[in-house]
TrEMBL record:
Record's protein name: Uncharacterized protein
Keywords tagged on the record: Hydrolase, Nuclease, Signal
Keyword Magnesium carried by entry: no
Residues annotated as transmembrane: none
Residues of the signal peptide: 1-24
Organism encoding this protein: Streptomyces fructofermentans
């Protein structure tokens, strides 16, 4: 009699395990560790970084951008011309650049946030040699 109930017991345990694991799967909407944040269409083909994973100074720059300033560097908010061609081509004036402070640097350093008129946000830590789309 006990041997007949073992397959049913195992089936029930397997169903419970599947249900538990399905509940732990990433949903695409979170930003915490282990979640899969879906990149917006403007970021297609560009490496990405979650805002929470940016250096503290970059997150501070984003907060200043969101709040409209004031910005610590005179060139913050100036037009970024994309001469390097690393960002998707857009009409002149589409992109703006903002300095991300680099501790220990006496000048502006190499880190920047570049924003687009349509809500795009990019981060570079190598003075425009490469960019990552910021997932917010």
């Amino acid at each position: 009699m006990l041997l007949r109930s073992v397959p049913r017991l195992l089936s029930g345990l397997l169903l419970c395990l599947v249900a538990v694991l399905a509940g732990c799967a990433p949903t695409g909407g979170g930003t915490g560790p282990g979640t899969d944040v879906t990149a917006p269409s403007w970021a297609a083909g560009t490496p990405t970084v979650r805002e929470a994973d940016l250096p503290r100074e970059a997150r501070r720059t984003l907060a200043l951008i969101d709040g409209g300033g004031p910005f610590p560097y005179a060139r913050d908010g100036s037009v970024f011309r994309n001469f390097e061609g690393e960002l998707p081509p857009q009409e002149p004036g589409h992109y703006r650049e903002f300095t991300v402070r680099t501790p220990g640097e006496r000048d502006r350093g190499a880190r920047r946030v570049v924003t687009g008129r349509d809500g795009e946000v990019y981060y570079t830590d190598d003075h425009y040699d490469s960019f990552r789309a910021v997932l917010r």
